[in-house]
Amino acid sequence: MAAELLRFDNVVAGYGALTILNQLSFTARAGEITLLIGPNGAGKSTVLKTLFGLLAPRSGQIHFKGNAVGGRAPAQMLRAGVAFVPQGRNLFPALSVRHNLELGAITLPPRDRASRFAEALARFPSLHSRIDSQASTLSGGEQKQLEIARALQLRPDVLLIDEPSIGLSPIVNQQVFALLRTLADAGTTVLMVEQNVRAALGVSDRVLLLEGGRLMLDSPAATLLADPDLNRVFLGKAVS
Which long-range contacts (CB under 8 A, 24 or more apart) does 108-114 make? Predict the structure, then answer.
């Protein structure tokens, strides 16, 4: 069994007077894809934002690599090895692919930037052919690849990714999910929020079901995908 990398212990967090995470506890293991599912408002995206430091926990503890990190700023989490690809498009649309990638590496020491840039293009050859194109002219799938490539230049230990399939065709969805699986197999821990549950389960190791900001189910992804009763409850219909 892979080593535990991340732990939430009774974390409470929210926005203003609204509480979203209600004493949430869970773990994520190194080199695995952990999928967060649940109804709208269950707290899935709030988990990622709280871990990355965009939202401070009101109480409880967040541990990463054995260190308490709850309340740290995003810049500190980046340095600690956590990268975040938010929901939607988060590029500089008027800038080229090259400049978007260069901005993603701006926190790196100058001596590392060229090699990380080359590494990103080697992983995403379609971006190499569009290197001087404006980001706004890329297809939806290429834009998502650019967001992921930009984050991976930091060689994060953990990649947080929120709804990667939004606006993408089924074929591009498969490519993005396959990429995440490849990253996890190479040692990057992935914490993913995704509404396309059936497809995401196929590449995930574990699934956490949230409801009302609490953990309702922690299961191997393959078990949930293969069990007709669980599929009726959580996915709406049995596996055909």
Answer: 108/153, 108/154
User: Per-residue pLDDT for the chain (240 aa), expressed as one digit of tens each?
Assistant: 679 999 999 999 999 999 999 999 999 999 999 999 999 899 999 999 999 999 999 999 999 999 999 999 999 999 999 999 998 778 999 999 999 999 988 888 889 999 999 998 888 888 989 999 999 999 888 898 899 999 999 999 999 999 998 888 888 888 889 989 999 999 999 999 998 888 899 999 999 999 999 999 999 999 988 887 766 666 655 443
Helices (H), the chain: 44-52, 74-80, 97-104, 110-123, 125-128, 140-152, 170-185, 197-201, 221-226, 228-234
Q: Nearest-5° angle of CA 6, CA 82, CA 213?
A: 50
The whole-angstrom separation of Cα 99 and Cα 132 is 8
3-state secondary structure of 160: strand
* In the block, residue with structure tokens 């869970």: 26
Q: Which of 80, 87, 78 is nearest to 47 (CA)?
A: 87
- 125 contact partners, CB below 8 Å, separation of at least 6: none
Domains of the chain, residue spans: 92-154
Give CA separation, 57 vs 70, 71, 157, 232, in Å.
6, 6, 22, 34
